Amino acid sequence: MKKPAIICSIIFLLMVCFYFFFLRPEKYVENDLYEDILQKGVIKVGINIDSKPFGFTNENGDIVGYDADLAHYIAQYILNNRDCVEFIPVTPANRMLKASTGEIDIIIATMTITPQRREIIDFSIPYDTAGQAVLVNASSKVTSISDLGGLNVGVIWGTTAEKNLINLVPTANILGFKSYQEAYSALKTGKINAITSDDTILSRFAIEDKEVKLLPKRYSREPYGIGFRKGKGSQKLKQNIDNAISDMKQKNVINRLHNKWLEN
Ligand code: GLU
Question: How many C-beta neighbours within 10 Å does residue 209 have?
Answer without folding.
Answer: 15
